[in-house]
Design a protein that fits this description.
The complex is a heterodimer of chains A (168) and B (200). By secondary structure, chain A is mostly beta strands. Chain A contains one helix and ten strands. In chain B, strands 5-4-3-8-9 form a five-stranded mixed sheet. A two-stranded antiparallel ribbon of chain B has the order 1-2. A two-stranded antiparallel sheet of chain B has the order 6-7. Classes of the chains: A mainly beta (168), B alpha/beta (200). Chains A and B meet through strand 4, strand 5 and strand 8 of A and helix 2, helix 3 and strand 7 of B.
Chain lengths: 168, 200
């Protein structure tokens, strides 16, 4: 039987229209960029620095990751832990190139996003949003999960889009 | 001056003396050089890492290096506000000890703070509990901690965004002498393997 538009209920049409507008409105939050597996560690107090690890992939044009922000911290900065002559240094990173062939992986002991001026201490189980901004104006927002202090990698993916949220 | 036989002899004696003097000088320098080198080599071989420390634990009790004689020590310097490398390293240590199983009982992991202002005994207690109940956190007065940092050749550099510090796991033998350094970013498997080799 052929599908007829007139057979759709008004509710279904409204839902369809909403979905369509949401997709077209998300031009700044580009679907070619993906942030996955974003996680953090607990902090004993809000005066301590928080950390975020995440994997960022780009299936569109090459660009650079130039910043991060979150409503739960005054500042979010990219840093690199670098071992030099036995001394561990934390170097600020202004930008990181990203292209389809070269994703960015923020992970323990390497690149990480440091959060300063937390609005509250982080405890295991909490989540908070993190927005990544790119040199060409694209951005992506994802949800960060606070894991235990001894976590060493992202939480297991459940198959659903657990870690990703696109904001208009 | 006329080259009389007497003058010729004097010249030859003069030359010989000069030659001997140069040779003696060369030998002396070589000897000096050799002795300096061997002293440096000796010093390097004895590279004293570790030594007496007098710090306080999470219950405000005084703890010294002598309290740990009889066990291997795995010593790490860091601070609780360290967002990335310290939690990563201490997690690896905890995991390495789990991998060691029963043999882990011979190893005492110790975490010494480089940030005494913030890392009070109670802050340290809460922090180390995150990794393994076996981890002992030590703090102290700035002077006591600086003495420990010097003994372990730990460099500390305070910056606006954090404290840079030597990130090395120091493995000490049960009699207190230094066994081996392990890079802090070694990972649990490497730490466990190294410990297995060193625990006899």
């Amino acid at each position: 039987m052929r599908f007829k538009l007139s057979q759709l209920s008004p509710g279904a049409m409204a839902a369809g229209a909403l979905a369509l507008s949401a997709l077209t409105a998300a031009h700044a939050d580009d679907m070619s960029l993906m942030a996955s597996g974003a996680w953090s560690r607990p902090t004993a107090s809000a005066s301590m620095a928080g950390v975020v690890y995440v994997t960022v992939t780009d299936s569109g044009a090459p660009t650079t990751l130039v910043g991060a922000s979150t409503p739960i911290a005054a500042q979010a900065e990219m840093h690199q832990s670098l071992m030099q002559n036995g001394m561990m240094e934390m170097l600020p990173v202004k930008s990181l190139p990203i292209a389809p062939a070269t994703p960015i992986k923020f992970s323990p002991g390497g690149y990480h996003i440091m959060l300063m001026g937390l609005s509250h201490p982080l405890s295991a189980g909490q989540t908070f949003p993190l927005t990544l901004t790119f040199g060409d104006g694209r951005r992506v927002t994802t949800t960060v999960t606070v894991q235990s202090m001894t976590a060493s990698g992202p939480p297991d993916t459940t198959g659903s889009m657990g870690g990703m949220k696109m904001s208009p | 001056m006329a080259r009389t036989p007497k003058n010729r002899r004097t010249r030859r004696v003069g030359l010989l003396t000069a030659f001997i003097a140069v040779v003696v000088l060369l030998c002396a320098s070589a000897g000096l050089f050799a002795s300096i080198r061997s002293e440096m080599r000796e010093q390097a071989a004895q590279a004293v890492v570790g030594g007496p420390f007098r710090l306080i634990d999470s219950r405000n009790r005084t703890v010294t290096d002598r309290d740990f004689r009889g066990r291997y020590l795995l010593v790490y310097f860091g601070y609780t506000g360290c967002p990335d490398i310290c939690p990563t390293t201490l997690s690896s240590v905890a995991q390495a000890l789990r991998l060691l199983g029963a043999r882990a009982a011979a190893v005492q992991p110790i975490f010494i703070t480089v940030d005494p202002r913030h890392d009070t005994p109670s802050v340290m207690a809460a922090y180390v509990a995150n990794f393994t109940p076996r981890l002992i956190g030590l703090t102290g007065t700035p002077a006591e901690l600086q003495a420990a940092e010097r003994a372990y050749h730990v460099t500390v550099e305070v910056t606006p965004t954090g404290i840079n510090h030597s990130a090395v796991l120091y493995l000490m033998a049960p009699d207190g002498h230094f066994l081996a350094p392990l890079p802090a970013d070694s990972g649990a498997a490497v730490i466990a393997t190294d410990l297995t080799h060193d625990l006899t």
